[in-house]
Amino acid sequence: MQIWQFQQNTAEKGGQLLVVRALQVMGEHFKGTLETPKLSDTMCQFLLSSLPFNTREIITSLRDSLSHSQTLLIRSEIENKAFSFFENMQRDISKLTVTITDILYNLKAKEIHKVKVKIKSFKDIKDISDFLRPFMSLILFQKEIEK
After folding, report:
1. What distances in angstroms separate CA 76 from CA 27, 66, 96, one per listed residue?
2. Which of 89, 80, 76, 84 minimizes the C-alpha distance to 27?
3. Cα(144)–Cα(109) distance, rounded to whole angstroms?
4. Residue 16 and residue 10 in contact, taking contact as beta carbons nearer than 8 Å
5. At 54, is the pLDDT very low, low, confident or very high (cuts 50, 70, 90)?
6. pLDDT (mean) for 71-100
7. Which residues have CB under 8 Å from 74's CB, separation 6+?
8. How far is CA 45 from the centre of its chain?
9. In this structure, what DSSP letter does residue 21 have?
């Protein structure tokens, strides 16, 4: 699995817009409410457990600030300090990318372990084949494990 590497020139308008959009998307997913759930509780806990305590509130607040009626005022303030703001945001988003990659790797490893335990519990190859058939062929399963 590959997660896109976040590298843009934050001194240029396009790079700044990319940072703003990344913050909006992250904030939208962390914002989940009872009416509009976004991330599962498990995924949200995984992500937030390896980040500072108030990360959810900060990202959600940034999302709200960049997405609503205050946007023009806030964006003009940000543009006055554009380079350092966007450079810091780019660095922080890159750190999140590393954290999310680690979380996904650990989740994948746990699921592979569960499958291995289940396969070990079977008495013969037919049971294993029946277990794996709905998901993928044995060849594709082997390729996935090798990744």
Report:
1. 20, 11, 26
2. 89
3. 11
4. yes
5. confident
6. 69
7. 65, 66
8. 12
9. H
Q: Is 64 left (phi over 0), alpha (psi -120 to 50) or beta?
A: alpha
Dihedral sign, Cα of residue 34, residue 63, residue 107, residue 46: negative
Sign of the CA dihedral running 46, 110, 38, 23 = positive
Most confident of 19-28, 84-93, 101-110, 117-126: 117-126
One-letter amino acid of 87: E
**Letter string b/e over residues 62-83, b meaning 16 or more CB atoms within 10 A of that residue's CB:** bbbbbeeeeeeeeeeebeeebe
Q: Would you say residue 69 has pLDDT above 50?
A: yes
Both structure tokens of 5: 């590497």
Are the C-beta atoms of 6 and 22 separated by less than 8 Å? yes
Output the six-digit token pair for 147.
């990744």
Which pLDDT score is estimated for 105?
Answer: 85
What percent of the chain lies above the pLDDT cut of 70?
41
Tokens representing residue 111 in the block: 């699921």
> CB under 8 Å to 9, separation ≥6 — which residues?
15
| Identity of the highest mean pLDDT range in 36-50, 54-68, 80-94, 115-129 | 115-129
